[in-house]
Amino acid sequence: MASEYSRRDFIKTTGAVGLGAAAVFGNRSGLAAIEKMAPSDTVQIGVIGTGSRGQHLIQNFLTIPGINIRAVCDIYEPNLKKGLSLSGGEKTKSFTDYHKLLEEKEIDAVLIATPLNLHAEMSIASMDAGKDVLCEKSLALTIDECHQIMESVNKTGRVFQIAHQRRYMPRYQRVAQLIEEGVIGKIVAIRAQWHRNEDWRRSIPDPSLEKLRNWRLYRQFSGGLMTELCSHQLHIANWVLKEHPVSVVGFGGIDFYKDGREVYDNVHAVFNYPSGVRFSYTSFTTNGHYGCSEQIMGEKGTIEITTAKATLYLEKPKPRPAFKTFVTNLERELFASVNIGTASFLPEEGGMDPGTEIDVVQDKDDTYYELSAFANHVRNHERPLCDVVEGFDTTVAVLMANEAMDKQEIVMWPSHLRA
Amino acid sequence: MHDGVVYESRVIPSMGTQLEAVLVHGDKNLLTGLLNEIAEELTRLDNKLSHYKVTSDVSRINRAAGVEPVLVDYEMIDILQQAIDAYQQTDGAFDVTVGPLLKLWGFFSKQHRVPDDAEINSVKSLIGSDKIRIHRAQHSVFLQKAGMSLDLGALGKGYALESIAKILRPYTDLSAFLSFGGSSIYSQGAPQKRNGWNFNYRAADRPAERYLEVSLKNQGFSVSANYNQSFAIAGKAFGHIFQPQLCRPTEELLSAAVISKSPMRAEMLSTAFMVMGLDKSKEFLAGEKATQAILTFLEPGSDVLQVEKINFEEA
Fold it and tell me: Do A340 and B181 touch (CB under 8 A)?
C-alpha cells in the first residue's frame, strides 16, 4: 500500500474530515412508508467516517424511508459525536475501530466516507465481513488498490456502489437520455471544469492535526483535484460515451499556494477516448469565475450541465413548423399547399441558439438519489448502476492523469488489468 | 428520396431572420456543397448590409451621415443605385431612409407612440432617398444630413436571393425554394411532378386570417403587410410601413404581395405598393405587365376583405 499510515493510525488520529454545522432534515412524507414496511425492509447502515461528507450523507440517508443508521465510526471525537447525534443518539452504536463496527451482525451495509487512502482496505474488509458497500469517490488511491477492490467485489458478490451521485441525479439521467435519443448527434468533444477560488484548507485546532485534517493536500492520502473533483465529471464523460479513456496527457503544478501542500493547485488534462472523442479538463483553486460545469458537444448541439441546470444549445436553428411540413410534404409527394408565407418586419434575434433549459424535476439534495438507489440495491441485492467497474474506469483514468502530470508523459490505460 | 432525387433542406440565420432553403437534385453532395456556399454568401452580405453590425457598410455610412462620404465597393454602389431608382420610379413611395421615422414612432425601442407634429417636422428633412449622394468614380456614399439613416431591410433579403440565384442558376437540373422568414421567397425550377413551387401566404388578419395560394417558377415573391409589428393606441392601429411624404404609417392596404422575375424587385415593390395604395399601384403595374401583384384591403365602410389580383391574366 502506498500509504505509510495504517488503519490503526487512521482510527487513532484522523477522521476529522471536516467541520460543518449539519442540520437534521425530517422526513414526514416517508413515515407512512416506514410503518408499512416489514422490518427486513429496513436497511441497517454502518457509517465509517463521520466527517463533513459522512455527516452530509447521514442526514440525507435519514430522509429516505426504511433506513436505520445502526452504527457510526470515527477516530476524531467531535465528528463521532456529531455523527451519533445525527443518527439517533442512544439507539446508534459508536466505534473508533471500524473492524468492531463490521462485527455487528445486524448491519447490512456500510457507508465509507474516509480519506482516499483508506477506501481499499476498508471496502475489502467490509465485503469480507459480508457487508454491502457504498464507498465515497474516488475508488482508491492507486490503480493496484482499484484492481483489488474490483477483485473483492467479484469474489464476494457483495453490492458495491461508488458514490458518484450524478449517476443517479434526474438532471444527469435526463441529459444521458437526450444524448441517447440523438438530440446532439454524435458526441465530438467534452469539456469540463471545476474552478474555485479558495485554498482548500481546513482550520486546525492543533498543528499536529495538519495532515489529518488537511489530508486532501497530501499525496499519501489524496490524489488532489483529480480524485476529489475531476473524477465526478470524468465519470459523466465515461457514462455518455460508454467507454473509458485509453491515454491521458496533462500539466499541473503547485504554482500559487506555497504552503507545504503536495497536490497541485491547478490541473489541466486531456483524456483520449477510443472513439476519437477527447475530454478536456481544468480545475483551479485560484479562480472561480467559470465554476463547475460539463459541456457535452455533439455534431448537432451542445448540452451544458451546471450545478443549477442543464441547457441544450442546438448548432442549427430549429425550422419553423410550417417549413418542416413544407419539406415533409415534398418528400412524401403530397401536393397540399403549406402556409409558409408571411410578412416579417423587425425580426427575431438571428445567430446562435440562445439555449433551452432542459425540463427536469430535481428537488432533493444531489445525494438523495444515489442513497435511495443504494438502499434499493441492498434490499434487492442487485448490481448498482454506478458499480465497481464504473468506479474503476473513472478512478484509474484520473490516477493516470496525475501520473501524466507528474512525469510529463503520455500515460496509457493499464489494459493488463482491464481491457 | 424519389426517383434518385434528394431533398436537402437547411435553415440559415441571416438578414435578421432566417433563410429556409430546400434544394432538389440527384446528387446529395452537390446540394450540401451549394448550401455551404449559400451560407457563406449570406455571411458576406450580412456583414455588408446589416445595420446591427457596427462594421457593415450600412453602419459606416450611417455613422458618417452629415460628416463625410464613405468608401464602399461597387456592389454597394449598385445596390444603393437600385434603391434610388426605385425611389424615383415610385414617386418616393419606396424609400430606404425612413429609419428616423420608425425610431420616432418607437419601432426600434418597441415603446410605440404617436409623435406630435413638431416632432414629425423635426425629422422630415432627414427623410428622402434623393439626399443619398453616390459618387460612382470615387465609389463613395454620403448621407447629406446628420441624423439620416439607411435601412436596407426592405430590399436586403431580395438582394440576397438574387445573389443566391446566381449561384444556383448554372445547375439547370436543380430546383430550389428559398424563403427568408416567409416574406421574401425565390424559386428555381419546380419540384418533382409539379409545375412550380406552391405555397400559401398570410394575406390578411382582418376581418379573419386569410391565406392565399401562389405558385412560383424561376420567380421571386415578396409580401408586405400591416399585421406584423403593428401597434394600437386609443383603438387605432398603426402598421410599421411608412408613408414617407406624410411621415405616418400606411393605412389603406392590409397586404401587398408581388411576384417578379427579380426577387429584389418583388421585395421593393411590395413595400412601395403598401405606401401607394390600390389606385396608384394599379397605375404603376399597368406600365410593368411582367410584375404581378395581389393587394388586399377592406371594402371601405365594411368588414369585407377584398382581394385584387393584378397582371395575372397575361401570365
Answer: no
